[in-house]
Structures are given as structure tokens and as C-alpha cells.
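Record pair follows.
FIRST:
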Amino acid sequence: MENAPFFEGKPPVYKFLLLILFVIIGFSFSNILALLLAGLFWDQTQITVLPEAIRFVLLLSSLGVFFLPAYLYLFLEKNNFSKTPKKPVLFTQINLKEHKISIIIIGLISIFIILVIGLIGEWNQQLHFPGSLQKIENWMRAMEDSNQKTIELLTSSPHIGNLFLNLFFMAVLPAICEELFFRGVIQNFFISITKNKHIAIMVTAIIFSTIHFQFFGFFPRLILGIYLGYLAVWSESLLLPILAHFFHNGISLIITYITNQTIPNSDELNMSNISGIGMLFVISCVIISIGIYYIYKEQRKYRHLNVKTFNI
């Protein structure tokens, strides 16, 4: 038993509390480290206004809050501190050849899902709280505006080099770190205790959307989380949700870059004002549904329908 995985025989509450502890430590350490290191290169007052400083903070936050806690948790699920693992805690089960058709379909879905999620996001922005909760709504909108200003600051530069930097810090990094955390750890945890993949996917998607603290973008991110959750379950791999997450963020950044360079006041554009947008929305939903169905069928060729823990 001394070589058994650290988490073997431990109750779910113990493992979940330990994960929360990892996140708290990671969050605290990454923020302190970000402030200390950023202070060496920039003035403290510039950390929230310089794109380079913001990207640096994003890097440390992604690693400290998502990647390292998830990595350590998965290590303890597979190994014990007293023994050396035969393989590192990485994506050893990924098979690109096996998933190539699904990857192509995910790439096509990502184009159409931008429109669907964008429209749902505009609808989400129009929601208002009851008068008694007006102060809470004002606080949420202030936080939303602050996040939006940060995104605009990072994406406003016309230089192509900044686009590639944004693709790494705002697409590649979140895709890997967040999927490892949410679909690799959180979703699997809820699958193990509920024995129901649909409940686990929904709960994880709610946590995924809530933890971004963009309350007026809650529903589009919830839909995206559900989509990513099913990709993870059907493939029993993190490859597909990582790629889908990357494609979504990456295409959004490229579209933002192009519109910023070609359309004046592009930040004031609303998708709902586009002529025929209702029909485009319906067509996009149909295409997305067909694509998701084919991914499900494709993955069913290689995997059993019963869910198992990722071999990470």
C-alpha cells in the first residue's frame, strides 16, 4: 500500500478541499509573485495599463490558479510522493490520427459558434436585476467594464506581433490551463461522485462560467463550457476541448484584430444589427448541431460510452 497513489482511499471531500487549498495557495503565490516581479520591470502604477505587464500577470495567474493546482491534483491521483512516476503527468493518451476528423469538424464549428455565442452574449448584456439588487448589478457591470477595457487595451494595437502575443496569452495559455483544471479535474471529480456525466458537465460549466467573474457574459460562457464538457467525455481526452477552446478564443481575437483595422469604431458594432442575423443564427445553430452529432458518432467508433478518468 505504500506505493499506492496518494489519493487512493481518500474521501471525495478530502480531495476537493485539498484542491481548493492548492488553488488558494496558487492564487496567492502567483499574485504576490506577479506584483514583485512586475515591479522590477515596470512601475506599480503601470501594471494594469501596460499590455506587457497585463500579459505577464495573465501568465502567472493561469499557471498559479489553474495549471499547477490541477497538475498537482492529478499527480496525487496517479502517484505517491514516495515513488517516481513512470510517466510525467501529461497528455499521454492523445492520438492526433484518431481524432483528425473531429478536429476538422471542431475547427468548422468554431467559426459558426462565434456568431451564436456573440448574439447570446448581447442578449445577456441586456439583462437587468430587480431594483432591490441594483447595487449588485452596478458592481457587476463595473467589473465587466473593467474587464472589457483590459481586453480592448490588449487588442487595440495594429501590429501583427501583438496579435501573435495575444494568441498565446489569451488563446493557447487559457485553453491548456483551464481545460486541464475544469475538464481534467473538476468535471472528472463530479463524474466520480455523481456517477452522471450530464450533471457533472453542467455543474462544471456553471463553475467555469462563474469563476471568470464576467456576469453579463455568463450564459455564452456556460454554453461553451457545456460544449467543451461533452467533447471531453466523448473523447475521454483533453485534446478536443483544448483545441475547441483555443479555436474559439483564437478566432475571436483574429476577428477583433481585423475589425479594429478595417472598421472605424468597431467596438460600437452590435451583431444584432446585422441584416438577416436571425436567419444566420438559425443556420449556424443547425450547422453546429450537425457538427456536434458527427463528432459524437466519430468518437463512438473508438471509445466506449462509459466514462473513465483521463490518463493524464
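SECOND:
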Amino acid sequence: MLKKISIPTSSKLHIVGHRVCEGCQSKVPIIENEKDGEIVTVSDCLTCDTKELEIEYGAVADRMEDREHEIFYEKHSVIPEDLEDASFDNYKPEHPTQKDAYKKATWYAENFMELEFTSLLLKGPYGVGKSHLAKAISDAVKAKGHTVIYIDVPQLLRKIRNTFGSDETDEAIYKAIEKADLVVFDDLGAERVKLDDSGDSWAGEVLFEMFSARTNKEKIITTNCGADELRRKYGNMGGRIVSRMMKGTKVVPVEGRDMRIPEF
């Protein structure tokens, strides 16, 4: 709790002497103040009080700085509820490609920002653990103190549409994506895209802006779509989106049965 400094409010103030502060050896006035018929003596050392405030404010600032990456993550990430607890520890690879993807994902997280390439693209059908590994990577990187954004692409596009006319603009989201040390683009291609008569789409323009902001920067992408499918899906912007997202990106195929559906 911050220390409250006593400041006499009466006009009947008298300096009756001085003392040497035990803490900083400063010369401190001794003031008598008449209040409600009583004499009150005040001799606060403003030098020491100021130093205490600086230390306390500094400690608060340090705590905020220590949590900056977590605050950034909490503010900007869009994470599906079923991935909240996903981690490397509870990933259960069965198929050989799942085991290989697990090794590459853990290796990427351990060597983050020290690699010759910047990004991974986990490609495969639904339910094989791509998003699980992406979330595990993001948590491991965040634990090292890096700023991370985890984005479920379909949810993000809905979020951007909902920010029109509000305080949080799409420009603010783009800036956050550009600033982060790592951005995860989960489930790319699962969003609904409507092309107009000229072959353009709002979703394609938004994704192009985001991937342009992350060119040559660290990112994780998960998708069940191939490059040609993404090019067709985003129309006129499709080729440019794929070109931006694949620069410095290694493809990791993931196969296997749908881990979300029990056998019956």
C-alpha cells in the first residue's frame, strides 16, 4: 500500500526547528500546526517518502512488465474452448505422422527464434491433432516470455466484422498481429468466403493484410486445405495469400483417425 504523506492544512504553521533524517541524513523541518485548539507536530521526510513511492511504483511497473506477454495474449487471442487445456503433455500421437509432427512441434518451441526458417504449417484432415500441437507450441513459447497471439481464423474474421464502428478497429488487430513474437493461425480455410462477381472477397483481403504483416515473421498455421484449394477459395487474393504465408514456412503433414470421435 502506498504511504500517505501528512500535509497540514491549517494556516497556523510554525517551523520550530530541524532534525536530521535517520534514513537519508537530510535536514527535515519540524513543523507545529494548531488544529482544533491542539498543537500537532509534523516532521515527515519528503526525500524518504518520495524514494518509497518510487520503489513501490517501480515494483508495480516491474510486475506489469513481467506479465506484459500474458496480458498481450489474453487481450488479443481467440482460442476455441476445447483447446484451453491442450499441451504437449496430453497429446496422444498414434499415427507415424502424428509422432513426427509432435517431435517437430516440440523442437520448434524449444528453438524458437533461433531457426533458419520462421514458421510451421500443420496440414491434414480434421481431428488429427493439428490445433492441439499449435496450442501447445504457443503455450511453450509464451512461457519463455514471448508475446503470442493464438487465432482461430473463422472466429477472428467474425470478431473483426463485429469491431466495425467500435473502439477496437481492424487496424488495431493488424498492429497487434504484426507486433507479436508468434502468431498462430488455426483452422485456416474453414471460414466461409463469399467471392463477388470480380473474384474478390472481404475475407481474402483481411487475410492478405494479416499474412503481409507476418511476412518473414514467426507463425504457426493449421489447415486441412492444400495450396491450390486455398488459392481458389480466396479468389483474386488467393495466390498472394499463399505466397505470403509460405515464405519461410515448413510444411508438416499430419494424418490419422479423427481423435475427437471415439470408435463405435
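COMMENT: The CA atoms of residues 127 and 259 lie 5 Å apart.
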